[in-house]
Target: Isopropylmalate/isohomocitrate dehydrogenase
Amino acid sequence: MSRIAVFEGDDASPEVVRSAVQIVDKAGADIEWIHATADDPALMRDAIDNSDATLFGSASARSVPAIEYLRWGKKTYANVRPITTMPNAATPLADSSGIDFAIVRENLEDLYVGIEGSLADLSGAGLTDRIGRPIGDHGAGTFAVKLVTTSGIEQVARSAFELARTRAHQRSRTGRVTIGTKHNVLPVTDGHFREVALDVATEYPDVEVVSYLADDLARRLIISPRELDVVLLPNLYGDILSDEAAALVGGLGVAPSGCYGTDYAYFEASHGTAPDIAGKNIINPTAQILAAAMMLDYLGQDDPARRVRSAVHSVYAEGSCLTVDVGGHASTTDFTDAVVAAL
Ligand code: ATP
Ligand code: MG
Model:
């Protein structure tokens, strides 16, 4: 029996979270759900602290304290976003078959530490820009800190190489980690990310490692997505490139996400709360359902995880009951019912 905190989230999120919970139960998973909200901070932390993992529905501003606690409170440093072909899902590619990679996004550092301020705060710090001009000479304005720690890079890089090793074993081929940074423009911060990741690579001689500039990688995602296996990225590039990558296989509606720390993990769809389609029963629950399958993997409930994935894939392969975002006509509940029937 696993104890799972479940947050339904905001706007259209409850529609996909209810679908995922229904399917996980139907798949025979052994789970006790602890329903939680971000409204009372102490209850919210209790629900998370007394659970094995969280299934999270995307949050608007109202629920930000929950996501802050799940990420920075529980130190879930590795955000894993699998990008896998979904049969019959509409995509911009002429042929989207055979795409199968995973983005590992650093989840706590980089520009997301939330240290921003007025340039006036920095004027006495003795900092100069690339042409030697003191910060104070730039006039009024703002700045953000891009914070990168050696231990932070090491732990997310190890997650990426471990994942590459696991995937190589499952697929009987050599694993590869592709690193994307802007080490040319940011030699100190992104250069450090790249150097430390390449150091970690030496602990994994069985895994290939490739390093590209992040902008070059954005192009390669489109022209040669089948060459990718595990993609390791700093926080900001990982956020942006994972939305781009999702478009290759059917869009945000099919892209799940798991955020892993040393002793806790939470699972959510890669997409936001989709406020524009809330309450219409048209949101695609696939991303949330596949995130719940990642949660079952994490909990060691392998059989229910396999049943959930194969039911979802069979509904896509059959193709007549898909939601509007991937080119079909079905409602959220029609799609959910089809997955339940496949189970
Ligand atoms: P956030 O800042 O939380 O990431 P966002 O601005 O990126 O949010 P999303 O909520 O991800 O916005 O939605 C972007 C667009 O994709 C919206 O038009 C939304 O309706 C659509 N969308 C997102 N998720 C789904 C889904 N599961 N099914 C169908 N459409 C979706
Ligand atoms: Mg977004």
In short: The chain has three domains: 1-84+254-343, 100-108+148-247, 111-145. DSSP finds eleven helices and twelve strands in the chain. Residues 100-108+148-247 form a domain with the Rossmann fold fold (CATH 3.40.50).
